[in-house]
Structures are given as C-alpha cells and as structure tokens.
C-alpha cells in the first residue's frame, strides 16, 4: 500500500484530502505545518507528498527543497498545492524540486489522476534505484573476484615483485600475472581491456586463465611477440564483440640477466637503474604493435634489455597517469615517470609511497579508470 503524506495548515483541506485518498486505498498521514511535515517525511519515507505552498514559518517551497535534499527521500514525489497559477510561480516550484502542481480550488478527479501518475513515477524511480544498487553490487563482486585471482607478492630473491590493483567505481579490464616458466625464466605481463563493466572484465579473465594454463596452441611462451600473435588470433574483434586490449609481456632470464619483451598498444614499462638517488637511469621499454584484437594480421616484435643489479621495473595501465585535473588538463605519463623516480629508493617495495602521491594528484575520491601497477625489483 502506497504511503502518502499531506502537509497543510487548513483542517478542512486535511480532512477532504485524507478521506478522498484513503477511499482510493492509500495509507495517508497528515501534518499541519512545514516543520512537522518534514519530520514525518523523514520518518515515514512516503511515496508521495502533497504540500500546501502558502504556510506560516516554513512554506511549501522550503519543505520541498529539504525533502529533495534528503538522500532517503530521493524517490519521493512532491506535489505542491497552490492557488498561485502564474508562470513565474511554477518556475519557482520546479526550481525547488517540485514534481507536479495541483491548483486550488482542488478538482478531485484531477487530484486523483496526478496522484496516480506521481505514484507510477515513484515506482519507476524505485525500480531504477534498485537496479542501480544491484549493478553496483555485481560490479563490486566482480572486482573482488578479479582481485582474488591476481598473484600474491613475490618476496624471495633474485626477483621480488609487489603489485596493486585498485578498481574504479566502474569495473574495467585490468589484469596481470607473473610466474616462473622454469627455474631460470620469469614471465611478467599486464593487460588492459577497452571499456568498463563486466564486458571489459570477461576478456581479461579469459586471457589470465589462458596464459596461466599455457592453453594457447603452438605458442612459444618464452618469446613475447609469439604470445601476442597467439592472443591476437584468439581474441579478434567481431560484430558481437567490440573489445580489444593492450598488453605488455616480458620474460626475464635470471642467469643472463636479460629481459625480452613486446607490447601491443600498451604504455611503456619503465626500468630504473642506478644505486644512488643522485643518478637514476630511466629506460622506457616499448615495442611497436597494435592492440590485440584490432586487426588479424597485426605484427609484433621483440626487444631486449640487459638488467643490472638493483634495477626496478614498473609496468602499469594508463589509468594510473591519465588523471583529469581541475583545470581541464590531464596529468600524463611524464609526470608519472618523474614520480616513480622521486619515490624510488633501495628498499624492495615502494608502491605505498607511489600510491600516496597519486592520491594527492587525483582531485576525486575515486579514480576514473582501473589502476594497476607492478613493481619488479631485480636483486
């Protein structure tokens, strides 16, 4: 049964409206002034409020403003009862948040029709709110699942790895993994699927599972370009699937201290070398290659890099540096690389310092995109 609250300082109007609406099957409450009406609205959370415009102390406009400013009453429909029929008056009411008007003297057939219409709108708003909450719950569960399958910190030399995954309010397509292919070779990769939501997360989960189980046929997992070629053949865009993804994939040989890598439209990995803070060498590790899924005949190439002792490699998604600023500009890759240099020290893990600084850069409470960051320290 729908709850309706009547706010009017005229006892005769109260009685008339209450009897009429009660006979229509509604549950009706009454308040004689704006203050009591606002208190009852917050307590009862009615589906609809009928409120007189002209009342002493707190008029209907002020009641409307406060009702609409109350999150718990976000779906409550507010109808003003008024003898003021001018355009300017209606504009004032709409600006205050009123959903509809009923003119005095009240015509009961019109009142009943407007109440029915208001309650339909209230139910629609409730349904949309419930769907939104359900979607947010599903996205949170999906983000929790993605987090649960990501690898733990690697703490045993000769390679130590720390990682962070911070999903935005809209789940995106970030994912990463690292594991030893054998006693000498460590595979490391990070990918970022286009878009947001579950449709972006699903291809990421497929890639994680496929690479972990080495399920790509006829692929040399020690050769990054071959891995990207296999993924590109497996995950081509179609009319039903418009998703593509960027990826950085590398294999580190701990005996040769050599890193072989390839990328597909992904931001460069950043290798920092040097034992003293006064001189840190910065290398951007990236190869030419289109995102996976865009074109079936895309080419991918390998590159090689020697890794000196106490070097640190950072791999990340673009959400970590594409941060919108209040002045309309985007905080970019170069400032982020400078931040990595400033935060680096000879300790094994530095990501807490990096993330703390990133939160100072981000003007919002949440990031606009998923944020993924790997820190690989070579001893």
Task: Furnish the topology, listing elements before pairings.
Elements: E1 3-7, H1 11-23, E2 27-31, H2 34-44, E3 48-52, H3 60-68, E4 77-82, H4 87-96, E5 100-103, H5 108-149, E6 159-166, E7 173-180, E8 185-193, H6 198-212, H7 224-234, E9 245-253, E10 258-264, E11 269-276, E12 279-285, E13 303-306, E14 311-316, E15 323-324, E16 330-331, H8 333-343, H9 351-361, E17 371-378
Parallel strand pairs: 1-2, 1-3, 3-4, 4-5
Antiparallel strand pairs: 6-17, 7-8, 8-9, 9-10, 10-13, 11-12, 11-14, 14-17, 15-16
Task: Report what the structure shows.
β1 (3-7), α1 and β2 form a beta-alpha-beta unit. The chain is built from nine helices and 17 strands. With 379 residues, the protein is an alpha+beta fold. α2 packs parallel to α3 (60-68). It folds into two domains: 3-137, Response regulator (Rossmann fold, 3-Layer(aba) Sandwich); 150-378, PPM-type phosphatase domain (Phosphatase 2c, domain 1). Helix content is 35%, strand content 27%.
The number of distinct structural domains comes to 2
Strand composition percent: 25-35%
* CATH C-level label of the largest domain: Alpha Beta
Whole-angstrom Rg: 30 Å
* Mean pLDDT across residues: 89
Output the number of helix runs.
9
Q: Low-confidence parts lasting 5 or more residues at pLDDT below 50?
A: none
Distance between the termini: 69 Å
- In quaternary terms, these chains amount to single chain
**Structural class given helices, strands, pairing?**
alpha+beta
């Amino acid at each position: 049964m729908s709850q309706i609250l009547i706010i009017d300082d005229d006892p005769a109007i109260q009685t008339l409206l209450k009897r009429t609406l009660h006979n229509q099957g509604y549950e009706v409450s009454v308040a004689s002034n704006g203050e009591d009406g606002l208190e009852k609205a917050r307590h009862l959370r009615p589906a609809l409020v009928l409120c007189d415009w002209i009342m002493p102390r707190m008029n209907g406009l002020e009641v409307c403003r406060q009702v609409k400013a109350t999150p718990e009453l976000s779906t409550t429909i507010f109808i003003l009862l008024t003898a003021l029929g001018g355009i300017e008056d209606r504009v004032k009411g709409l600006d205050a948040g009123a959903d509809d008007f009923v003119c005095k003297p009240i015509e009961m057939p019109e009142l009943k029709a407007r109440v029915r219409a208001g309650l339909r709108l209230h139910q629609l708003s409730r349904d949309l709110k419930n769907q939104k909450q359900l979607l947010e719950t599903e996205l949170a569960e999906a983000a929790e699942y993605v987090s649960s399958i990501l690898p733990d910190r690697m703490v045993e030399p000769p390679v130590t790895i720390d990682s962070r995954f911070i999903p935005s309010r809209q789940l995106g397509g970030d994912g990463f993994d690292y594991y030893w292919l054998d006693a000498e070779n460590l595979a490391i990769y990070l990918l970022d699927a286009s878009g947001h939501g579950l449709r972006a997360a699903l291809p990421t989960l497929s890639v994680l599972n496929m690479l972990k189980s080495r399920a790509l046929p006829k692929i040399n997992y020690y050769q990054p370009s071959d891995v990207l070629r296999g993924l590109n053949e497996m995950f081509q865009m179609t009319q039903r699937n418009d998703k593509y993804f960027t990826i950085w994939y590398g294999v580190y040989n701990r005996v040769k201290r050599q890193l072989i890598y390839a990328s597909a439209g992904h931001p460069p990995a950043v290798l920092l070398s040097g034992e003293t803070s006064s001189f840190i060498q910065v290398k951007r590790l990236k190869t030419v290659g289109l995102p996976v899924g865009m074109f079936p005949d895309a080419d991918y190439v390998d590159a090689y890099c020697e890794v000196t002792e106490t070097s640190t490699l950072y791999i990340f998604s673009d959400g970590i540096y594409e941060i919108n600023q209040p002045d309309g500009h985007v905080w970019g890759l170069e400032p982020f690389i400078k931040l990595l240099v400033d935060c680096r020290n000879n300790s094994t893990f530095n990501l807490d310092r990096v993330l703390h600084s990133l939160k100072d850069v981000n003007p919002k409470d949440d990031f606009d995109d998923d944020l993924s960051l790997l820190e690989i320290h070579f001893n």
